[in-house]
Design brief:
Structural class: alpha/beta
Largest sheet: 7 strands, mixed
CATH class of the domain at 8-15 and 70-113 and 236-450: Alpha Beta
Number of helices: 18
Helix content: 40-55%
Distance between the termini: 56 Å
Radius of gyration: 20 Å
Bound molecules: pyridoxal-5'-phosphate
Number of strands: 15
Protein backbone atom coordinates (compact mmCIF):
# COMPACT_ATOMS: atom_id res chain seq x y z
CA UNK A 1 0.00 0.00 0.00
CA UNK A 2 1.29 3.41 -0.92
CA UNK A 3 2.28 5.53 2.04
CA UNK A 4 2.77 8.86 0.32
CA UNK A 5 -0.22 10.19 2.21
CA UNK A 6 0.57 10.28 5.94
CA UNK A 7 -1.60 8.61 8.56
CA UNK A 8 -2.34 12.01 9.98
CA UNK A 9 -2.47 15.25 8.08
CA UNK A 10 -2.02 18.25 10.34
CA UNK A 11 -2.06 21.85 9.17
CA UNK A 12 0.58 24.33 10.24
CA UNK A 13 -0.68 27.07 12.52
CA UNK A 14 -0.39 29.61 9.72
CA UNK A 15 -2.54 27.43 7.44
CA UNK A 16 -5.50 27.51 9.82
CA UNK A 17 -8.64 29.29 8.58
CA UNK A 18 -8.92 32.98 9.49
CA UNK A 19 -12.50 33.24 8.29
CA UNK A 20 -15.60 31.08 8.63
CA UNK A 21 -17.50 30.15 5.50
CA UNK A 22 -21.22 30.81 5.25
CA UNK A 23 -22.68 28.27 2.82
CA UNK A 24 -26.00 30.16 2.66
CA UNK A 25 -24.25 32.81 0.56
CA UNK A 26 -23.87 30.29 -2.28
CA UNK A 27 -27.38 28.85 -2.03
CA UNK A 28 -29.66 30.14 -4.78
CA UNK A 29 -32.72 29.14 -2.83
CA UNK A 30 -31.98 30.26 0.74
CA UNK A 31 -33.05 28.47 3.90
CA UNK A 32 -36.45 29.70 5.06
CA UNK A 33 -36.27 32.53 7.63
CA UNK A 34 -37.18 32.12 11.30
CA UNK A 35 -40.76 33.22 11.92
CA UNK A 36 -42.27 35.03 14.85
CA UNK A 37 -44.95 32.64 16.15
CA UNK A 38 -47.16 35.58 17.18
CA UNK A 39 -47.21 37.37 13.81
CA UNK A 40 -46.21 34.68 11.29
CA UNK A 41 -43.65 37.21 9.93
CA UNK A 42 -39.86 36.73 9.67
CA UNK A 43 -38.09 37.47 12.94
CA UNK A 44 -36.27 40.78 12.92
CA UNK A 45 -32.95 41.45 14.60
CA UNK A 46 -34.78 43.55 17.25
CA UNK A 47 -37.05 40.61 18.06
CA UNK A 48 -34.14 38.18 18.35
CA UNK A 49 -31.87 40.37 20.47
CA UNK A 50 -33.63 39.80 23.81
CA UNK A 51 -32.79 36.10 23.39
CA UNK A 52 -29.46 36.02 21.51
CA UNK A 53 -26.30 38.16 21.54
CA UNK A 54 -26.36 40.99 19.01
CA UNK A 55 -23.47 39.89 16.83
CA UNK A 56 -24.78 36.33 16.73
CA UNK A 57 -28.15 37.65 15.57
CA UNK A 58 -26.37 39.35 12.66
CA UNK A 59 -24.67 36.07 11.78
CA UNK A 60 -27.97 34.22 12.08
CA UNK A 61 -29.73 36.50 9.62
CA UNK A 62 -26.85 36.96 7.17
CA UNK A 63 -27.38 34.73 4.16
CA UNK A 64 -25.29 36.74 1.69
CA UNK A 65 -21.77 37.23 3.14
CA UNK A 66 -19.68 34.20 2.14
CA UNK A 67 -16.70 34.74 4.48
CA UNK A 68 -16.81 36.16 8.00
CA UNK A 69 -13.61 37.00 9.89
CA UNK A 70 -12.83 34.86 12.93
CA UNK A 71 -11.91 37.34 15.70
CA UNK A 72 -8.26 37.03 16.74
CA UNK A 73 -9.15 35.96 20.30
CA UNK A 74 -11.19 33.04 18.94
CA UNK A 75 -8.39 32.11 16.51
CA UNK A 76 -6.00 32.05 19.47
CA UNK A 77 -8.35 29.84 21.50
CA UNK A 78 -8.71 27.48 18.54
CA UNK A 79 -4.92 27.08 18.50
CA UNK A 80 -5.05 25.40 21.93
CA UNK A 81 -6.79 22.32 20.47
CA UNK A 82 -6.74 22.80 16.71
CA UNK A 83 -5.93 22.10 13.95
CA UNK A 84 -7.79 18.81 14.32
CA UNK A 85 -6.08 15.94 12.54
CA UNK A 86 -7.39 14.51 9.29
CA UNK A 87 -6.66 10.81 9.64
CA UNK A 88 -6.20 8.32 6.84
CA UNK A 89 -7.73 5.13 8.25
CA UNK A 90 -5.10 2.82 6.72
CA UNK A 91 -5.59 0.23 9.46
CA UNK A 92 -9.35 0.13 9.04
CA UNK A 93 -9.02 -0.12 5.26
CA UNK A 94 -6.68 -3.06 5.64
CA UNK A 95 -8.93 -4.83 8.12
CA UNK A 96 -11.97 -4.33 5.91
CA UNK A 97 -9.90 -5.39 2.91
CA UNK A 98 -11.47 -2.61 0.89
CA UNK A 99 -10.08 -0.69 -2.07
CA UNK A 100 -11.83 2.40 -0.66
CA UNK A 101 -9.72 5.14 0.84
CA UNK A 102 -11.13 6.22 4.18
CA UNK A 103 -10.43 9.52 5.90
CA UNK A 104 -11.88 10.95 9.08
CA UNK A 105 -11.65 14.37 10.63
CA UNK A 106 -11.21 13.85 14.36
CA UNK A 107 -12.81 16.49 16.60
CA UNK A 108 -12.39 14.69 19.93
CA UNK A 109 -9.05 16.21 20.93
CA UNK A 110 -10.29 18.54 23.63
CA UNK A 111 -11.72 18.05 27.12
CA UNK A 112 -15.32 18.56 25.98
CA UNK A 113 -14.66 15.57 23.75
CA UNK A 114 -16.40 16.93 20.67
CA UNK A 115 -16.60 19.55 17.95
CA UNK A 116 -18.96 21.65 20.10
CA UNK A 117 -16.14 23.77 21.50
CA UNK A 118 -15.73 25.39 18.05
CA UNK A 119 -19.03 27.21 18.43
CA UNK A 120 -19.02 27.47 22.24
CA UNK A 121 -15.97 29.72 22.23
CA UNK A 122 -17.43 31.88 19.48
CA UNK A 123 -20.76 32.33 21.22
CA UNK A 124 -19.16 33.00 24.61
CA UNK A 125 -16.81 35.51 22.99
CA UNK A 126 -19.67 37.56 21.52
CA UNK A 127 -21.56 37.44 24.83
CA UNK A 128 -18.48 38.77 26.62
CA UNK A 129 -17.94 41.43 23.97
CA UNK A 130 -21.51 42.63 24.53
CA UNK A 131 -20.76 43.01 28.25
CA UNK A 132 -23.16 40.30 29.43
CA UNK A 133 -22.93 38.55 32.80
CA UNK A 134 -23.58 35.10 31.51
CA UNK A 135 -25.36 32.67 29.24
CA UNK A 136 -27.89 29.88 29.62
CA UNK A 137 -28.18 26.75 27.57
CA UNK A 138 -29.47 23.23 27.27
CA UNK A 139 -27.38 20.11 26.95
CA UNK A 140 -28.34 16.61 25.92
CA UNK A 141 -25.52 14.15 26.18
CA UNK A 142 -23.47 16.83 27.92
CA UNK A 143 -20.88 17.63 25.28
CA UNK A 144 -22.32 21.03 24.47
CA UNK A 145 -22.71 21.96 28.14
CA UNK A 146 -19.12 20.93 28.78
CA UNK A 147 -17.83 22.88 25.80
CA UNK A 148 -19.76 25.97 26.83
CA UNK A 149 -18.58 25.66 30.45
CA UNK A 150 -14.98 25.56 29.20
CA UNK A 151 -15.47 28.59 26.98
CA UNK A 152 -17.24 30.55 29.75
CA UNK A 153 -14.56 29.68 32.28
CA UNK A 154 -11.90 30.98 29.88
CA UNK A 155 -13.76 34.25 29.33
CA UNK A 156 -15.01 34.62 32.91
CA UNK A 157 -18.73 34.39 32.12
CA UNK A 158 -21.44 32.74 34.21
CA UNK A 159 -22.90 29.58 32.64
CA UNK A 160 -26.25 27.98 33.53
CA UNK A 161 -26.87 24.59 31.95
CA UNK A 162 -30.18 22.72 31.72
CA UNK A 163 -29.29 19.10 31.17
CA UNK A 164 -31.75 16.53 29.79
CA UNK A 165 -32.72 14.45 32.82
CA UNK A 166 -31.89 11.04 31.35
CA UNK A 167 -28.33 12.20 30.63
CA UNK A 168 -28.03 13.96 33.99
CA UNK A 169 -28.73 10.63 35.65
CA UNK A 170 -26.77 8.44 33.24
CA UNK A 171 -23.72 10.66 33.13
CA UNK A 172 -22.88 12.02 36.59
CA UNK A 173 -19.24 12.51 35.61
CA UNK A 174 -20.19 14.68 32.66
CA UNK A 175 -22.15 16.88 35.07
CA UNK A 176 -19.14 17.07 37.38
CA UNK A 177 -16.86 18.17 34.56
CA UNK A 178 -19.21 21.09 33.88
CA UNK A 179 -19.24 22.03 37.56
CA UNK A 180 -15.48 21.81 37.61
CA UNK A 181 -15.43 24.45 34.88
CA UNK A 182 -17.72 26.58 37.04
CA UNK A 183 -21.14 26.01 35.45
CA UNK A 184 -24.36 25.35 37.36
CA UNK A 185 -26.21 22.28 36.10
CA UNK A 186 -29.95 21.61 36.53
CA UNK A 187 -31.73 18.44 35.35
CA UNK A 188 -34.53 19.22 32.88
CA UNK A 189 -37.48 19.35 33.03
CA UNK A 190 -37.18 21.05 36.41
CA UNK A 191 -39.37 23.01 38.77
CA UNK A 192 -37.05 26.03 38.55
CA UNK A 193 -38.93 27.42 35.52
CA UNK A 194 -42.59 27.96 34.64
CA UNK A 195 -42.25 26.01 31.41
CA UNK A 196 -40.51 23.13 33.21
CA UNK A 197 -43.39 22.92 35.72
CA UNK A 198 -45.90 22.82 32.85
CA UNK A 199 -44.03 20.07 31.04
CA UNK A 200 -43.79 18.03 34.26
CA UNK A 201 -47.54 18.36 34.81
CA UNK A 202 -48.29 17.21 31.26
CA UNK A 203 -45.70 14.39 31.24
CA UNK A 204 -44.99 13.28 34.82
CA UNK A 205 -41.92 11.03 34.99
CA UNK A 206 -40.56 12.20 31.61
CA UNK A 207 -36.84 11.66 31.07
CA UNK A 208 -36.73 14.98 29.24
CA UNK A 209 -35.63 16.01 25.80
CA UNK A 210 -33.52 18.70 24.22
CA UNK A 211 -36.73 20.51 23.30
CA UNK A 212 -37.74 20.77 26.99
CA UNK A 213 -34.30 21.87 28.11
CA UNK A 214 -34.20 24.59 25.44
CA UNK A 215 -37.50 26.02 26.68
CA UNK A 216 -36.17 26.19 30.23
CA UNK A 217 -32.87 27.79 29.25
CA UNK A 218 -34.62 30.40 27.08
CA UNK A 219 -36.98 31.28 29.92
CA UNK A 220 -34.08 31.78 32.32
CA UNK A 221 -32.15 33.92 29.81
CA UNK A 222 -35.09 36.19 29.05
CA UNK A 223 -36.10 36.68 32.68
CA UNK A 224 -32.61 37.44 34.05
CA UNK A 225 -30.89 40.77 33.41
CA UNK A 226 -27.55 40.46 31.60
CA UNK A 227 -28.13 36.93 30.30
CA UNK A 228 -28.66 35.55 26.83
CA UNK A 229 -29.42 32.11 25.55
CA UNK A 230 -26.96 30.15 23.42
CA UNK A 231 -27.66 27.00 21.43
CA UNK A 232 -25.15 24.30 20.49
CA UNK A 233 -26.59 23.20 17.17
CA UNK A 234 -29.40 23.73 14.63
CA UNK A 235 -28.92 27.50 14.17
CA UNK A 236 -27.24 29.02 11.12
CA UNK A 237 -24.64 30.75 13.32
CA UNK A 238 -23.56 27.37 14.75
CA UNK A 239 -23.10 25.89 11.28
CA UNK A 240 -21.07 28.98 10.41
CA UNK A 241 -18.69 28.46 13.36
CA UNK A 242 -18.46 24.75 12.64
CA UNK A 243 -17.34 25.48 9.08
CA UNK A 244 -13.85 25.49 10.63
CA UNK A 245 -14.09 21.66 10.47
CA UNK A 246 -14.71 21.59 6.73
CA UNK A 247 -12.28 24.41 5.94
CA UNK A 248 -9.41 22.67 7.73
CA UNK A 249 -10.34 19.38 6.09
CA UNK A 250 -10.46 20.94 2.63
CA UNK A 251 -7.10 22.68 3.09
CA UNK A 252 -5.52 19.43 4.28
CA UNK A 253 -6.99 17.44 1.39
CA UNK A 254 -6.04 20.05 -1.19
CA UNK A 255 -2.46 19.93 0.09
CA UNK A 256 -2.26 16.28 -0.94
CA UNK A 257 -4.51 16.49 -3.98
CA UNK A 258 -7.22 14.36 -2.36
CA UNK A 259 -10.81 14.71 -3.51
CA UNK A 260 -13.50 12.87 -1.56
CA UNK A 261 -16.25 11.10 -3.47
CA UNK A 262 -18.55 10.98 -0.51
CA UNK A 263 -18.77 12.93 2.72
CA UNK A 264 -20.59 11.37 5.64
CA UNK A 265 -21.60 12.84 8.98
CA UNK A 266 -23.97 12.13 11.82
CA UNK A 267 -26.85 14.57 12.13
CA UNK A 268 -28.46 15.62 15.40
CA UNK A 269 -29.23 19.26 14.80
CA UNK A 270 -26.87 19.31 11.85
CA UNK A 271 -23.95 21.43 13.07
CA UNK A 272 -20.98 19.09 12.60
CA UNK A 273 -22.30 17.78 9.31
CA UNK A 274 -23.11 21.29 8.12
CA UNK A 275 -19.66 22.47 9.17
CA UNK A 276 -17.85 19.56 7.57
CA UNK A 277 -19.65 19.74 4.25
CA UNK A 278 -19.92 23.55 3.95
CA UNK A 279 -16.88 24.32 1.78
CA UNK A 280 -17.46 21.19 -0.31
CA UNK A 281 -21.15 22.01 -0.70
CA UNK A 282 -20.13 25.54 -1.69
CA UNK A 283 -18.13 24.08 -4.59
CA UNK A 284 -21.06 21.92 -5.55
CA UNK A 285 -23.48 24.87 -5.42
CA UNK A 286 -21.13 26.93 -7.60
CA UNK A 287 -20.88 24.05 -10.09
CA UNK A 288 -17.17 23.49 -9.44
CA UNK A 289 -17.31 19.93 -8.11
CA UNK A 290 -19.61 17.03 -7.45
CA UNK A 291 -19.79 15.16 -4.15
CA UNK A 292 -22.16 12.71 -2.51
CA UNK A 293 -23.25 13.98 0.91
CA UNK A 294 -24.81 11.60 3.44
CA UNK A 295 -26.45 12.54 6.72
CA UNK A 296 -26.78 9.71 9.23
CA UNK A 297 -29.42 9.79 11.94
CA UNK A 298 -30.73 7.32 14.52
CA UNK A 299 -33.74 5.25 13.46
CA UNK A 300 -35.24 6.21 16.84
CA UNK A 301 -35.23 9.93 15.96
CA UNK A 302 -35.54 10.01 12.16
CA UNK A 303 -36.03 13.72 11.38
CA UNK A 304 -34.76 13.62 7.79
CA UNK A 305 -35.89 10.18 6.74
CA UNK A 306 -39.39 10.23 8.25
CA UNK A 307 -39.99 13.84 9.28
CA UNK A 308 -42.00 16.62 7.62
CA UNK A 309 -40.46 19.72 6.06
CA UNK A 310 -42.52 22.35 7.83
CA UNK A 311 -42.33 25.32 10.17
CA UNK A 312 -42.12 24.08 13.73
CA UNK A 313 -41.02 25.12 17.18
CA UNK A 314 -37.45 24.33 18.17
CA UNK A 315 -38.55 23.68 21.74
CA UNK A 316 -41.21 21.71 23.57
CA UNK A 317 -42.49 24.76 25.46
CA UNK A 318 -43.17 26.54 22.13
CA UNK A 319 -41.54 29.78 23.20
CA UNK A 320 -38.79 29.91 20.53
CA UNK A 321 -39.18 31.24 16.98
CA UNK A 322 -40.52 28.89 14.32
CA UNK A 323 -37.95 27.31 12.02
CA UNK A 324 -38.69 25.60 8.73
CA UNK A 325 -36.99 22.25 9.00
CA UNK A 326 -37.41 18.52 8.78
CA UNK A 327 -39.17 17.82 12.02
CA UNK A 328 -40.90 15.12 14.02
CA UNK A 329 -42.90 17.74 15.92
CA UNK A 330 -41.69 19.64 18.97
CA UNK A 331 -43.75 17.34 21.24
CA UNK A 332 -41.94 14.24 19.97
CA UNK A 333 -39.83 12.71 22.72
CA UNK A 334 -37.60 9.99 21.31
CA UNK A 335 -37.00 6.76 23.18
CA UNK A 336 -34.09 6.94 25.61
CA UNK A 337 -31.48 5.80 23.09
CA UNK A 338 -27.84 6.28 23.90
CA UNK A 339 -26.83 8.87 21.35
CA UNK A 340 -28.05 11.79 23.42
CA UNK A 341 -26.67 14.33 20.96
CA UNK A 342 -28.89 13.02 18.19
CA UNK A 343 -32.19 13.17 20.04
CA UNK A 344 -33.43 16.51 18.74
CA UNK A 345 -36.84 16.49 16.98
CA UNK A 346 -35.80 18.95 14.24
CA UNK A 347 -32.85 19.75 12.01
CA UNK A 348 -30.85 22.76 10.86
CA UNK A 349 -32.93 24.76 8.37
CA UNK A 350 -29.88 25.15 6.11
CA UNK A 351 -29.36 21.39 5.90
CA UNK A 352 -33.11 20.85 5.60
CA UNK A 353 -33.22 23.12 2.56
CA UNK A 354 -30.18 21.38 0.97
CA UNK A 355 -31.80 18.00 1.63
CA UNK A 356 -35.10 19.17 0.21
CA UNK A 357 -33.31 20.33 -2.95
CA UNK A 358 -31.88 16.81 -3.33
CA UNK A 359 -28.29 17.94 -2.71
CA UNK A 360 -27.86 15.60 0.24
CA UNK A 361 -29.01 12.09 1.17
CA UNK A 362 -29.97 10.75 4.57
CA UNK A 363 -29.89 7.33 6.19
CA UNK A 364 -31.33 6.10 9.45
CA UNK A 365 -29.44 3.42 11.39
CA UNK A 366 -30.28 1.36 14.48
CA UNK A 367 -28.28 1.71 17.65
CA UNK A 368 -27.07 -1.89 18.06
CA UNK A 369 -25.51 -1.83 14.58
CA UNK A 370 -24.04 1.58 15.43
CA UNK A 371 -22.39 0.21 18.59
CA UNK A 372 -21.11 -2.81 16.69
CA UNK A 373 -19.45 -0.43 14.23
CA UNK A 374 -18.13 1.69 17.13
CA UNK A 375 -16.42 -1.31 18.69
CA UNK A 376 -15.02 -2.51 15.41
CA UNK A 377 -13.58 0.96 14.86
CA UNK A 378 -12.23 1.27 18.42
CA UNK A 379 -10.45 -2.07 18.17
CA UNK A 380 -8.74 -1.14 14.93
CA UNK A 381 -8.19 2.61 14.98
CA UNK A 382 -7.81 2.89 18.75
CA UNK A 383 -10.13 5.85 19.30
CA UNK A 384 -13.17 5.13 21.48
CA UNK A 385 -15.86 6.98 19.53
CA UNK A 386 -18.90 8.82 20.85
CA UNK A 387 -22.17 7.02 20.08
CA UNK A 388 -23.22 9.99 17.94
CA UNK A 389 -20.04 9.86 15.86
CA UNK A 390 -20.45 6.11 15.48
CA UNK A 391 -23.49 6.68 13.27
CA UNK A 392 -21.13 8.12 10.68
CA UNK A 393 -18.65 5.28 11.24
CA UNK A 394 -21.39 2.74 10.59
CA UNK A 395 -22.26 4.21 7.20
CA UNK A 396 -18.61 4.79 6.26
CA UNK A 397 -17.88 1.10 6.94
CA UNK A 398 -20.98 0.07 4.97
CA UNK A 399 -19.83 2.14 2.02
CA UNK A 400 -16.27 0.79 2.23
CA UNK A 401 -17.65 -2.75 2.19
CA UNK A 402 -19.75 -1.91 -0.87
CA UNK A 403 -16.53 -0.81 -2.57
CA UNK A 404 -15.03 -4.18 -1.69
CA UNK A 405 -17.84 -5.85 -3.62
CA UNK A 406 -17.71 -3.56 -6.62
CA UNK A 407 -13.96 -3.01 -6.63
CA UNK A 408 -14.46 0.77 -6.70
CA UNK A 409 -11.66 2.84 -5.17
CA UNK A 410 -13.86 5.53 -3.71
CA UNK A 411 -12.52 8.13 -1.35
CA UNK A 412 -14.72 8.30 1.73
CA UNK A 413 -14.52 11.16 4.20
CA UNK A 414 -16.43 11.11 7.47
CA UNK A 415 -16.65 13.32 10.52
CA UNK A 416 -15.51 11.68 13.75
CA UNK A 417 -17.13 14.21 16.04
CA UNK A 418 -15.93 13.02 19.41
CA UNK A 419 -14.96 10.48 22.01
CA UNK A 420 -17.24 8.30 24.11
CA UNK A 421 -15.54 8.08 27.51
CA UNK A 422 -18.67 9.34 29.24
CA UNK A 423 -20.85 6.89 27.36
CA UNK A 424 -19.61 3.74 29.06
CA UNK A 425 -23.05 2.92 30.46
CA UNK A 426 -24.21 2.64 26.86
CA UNK A 427 -21.19 0.55 25.90
CA UNK A 428 -21.86 -1.61 28.96
CA UNK A 429 -25.45 -2.25 27.82
CA UNK A 430 -24.16 -3.20 24.41
CA UNK A 431 -21.42 -5.44 25.80
CA UNK A 432 -23.94 -7.16 28.09
CA UNK A 433 -26.29 -7.76 25.15
CA UNK A 434 -28.93 -5.59 26.77
CA UNK A 435 -29.23 -2.90 24.15
CA UNK A 436 -32.38 -2.80 22.08
CA UNK A 437 -33.45 -0.87 19.02
CA UNK A 438 -36.53 1.20 19.25
CA UNK A 439 -38.06 2.48 16.06
CA UNK A 440 -41.10 4.70 16.51
CA UNK A 441 -44.30 3.50 14.88
CA UNK A 442 -46.17 5.58 12.30
CA UNK A 443 -48.82 6.24 14.96
CA UNK A 444 -46.20 7.62 17.36
CA UNK A 445 -44.84 9.87 14.64
CA UNK A 446 -48.37 10.98 13.74
CA UNK A 447 -48.83 12.17 17.33
CA UNK A 448 -45.71 14.32 16.96
CA UNK A 449 -46.81 15.69 13.58
CA UNK A 450 -50.19 16.63 15.04
CA UNK A 451 -48.39 19.14 17.25
CA UNK A 452 -46.82 21.02 14.32
CA UNK A 453 -48.46 24.46 14.32
CA UNK A 454 -50.88 25.62 11.64
CA UNK A 455 -49.82 29.03 10.41
CA UNK A 456 -52.44 30.90 8.38
CA UNK A 457 -51.24 31.54 4.82
CA UNK A 458 -48.11 29.43 5.30
CA UNK A 459 -49.02 25.86 6.25
C1 LIG B 1 -23.72 17.06 19.72
C2 LIG B 1 -22.97 16.03 19.04
C3 LIG B 1 -23.36 15.58 17.77
C4 LIG B 1 -24.60 16.02 17.07
O1 LIG B 1 -24.80 17.38 16.90
P1 LIG B 1 -24.78 18.10 15.51
O2 LIG B 1 -25.19 19.48 15.79
O3 LIG B 1 -25.74 17.37 14.61
O4 LIG B 1 -23.40 18.00 15.02
C5 LIG B 1 -22.57 14.63 17.16
N1 LIG B 1 -21.48 14.14 17.75
C6 LIG B 1 -21.07 14.55 18.96
C7 LIG B 1 -19.85 13.94 19.56
C8 LIG B 1 -21.80 15.50 19.64
O5 LIG B 1 -21.40 15.91 20.83
Amino acid sequence: MSRDIPYKIYLEENEMPKQWYNVRADMKKKPAPLLNPATGKPMTAEELEPVFCEELVQQELDDTTPYIDIPQEIQDFYKMYRPAPLVRAYCLEKKLDTPAKIYYKFEGNNTSGSHKLNSAIAQAYYAKKQGLKGVTTETGAGQWGTALSMACAYLDLDCKVYMVKVSYEQKPFRREVMRTYGASVTPSPSTTTEVGKKILEAHPGTTGSLGCAISEAVEVATTNEGYRYVLGSVLNQVLLHQSIIGLETKTAMDKYGIKPDMIIGCAGGGSNLGGLISPFMGEQLRGEADYQFIAVEPASCPSFTRGRYMYDFCDTGMICPLAKMYTLGSGFIPSANHAGGLRFHGMSSTLSELYDQGLMEARAVEQTEVFAAAEQFARIEGILPAPESSHAIKVAIDEALKCKETGEEKTILFGLTGTGYFDMVAYQRFNDGEMSDYIPTDEELAAGFAGIPKIPGIQ
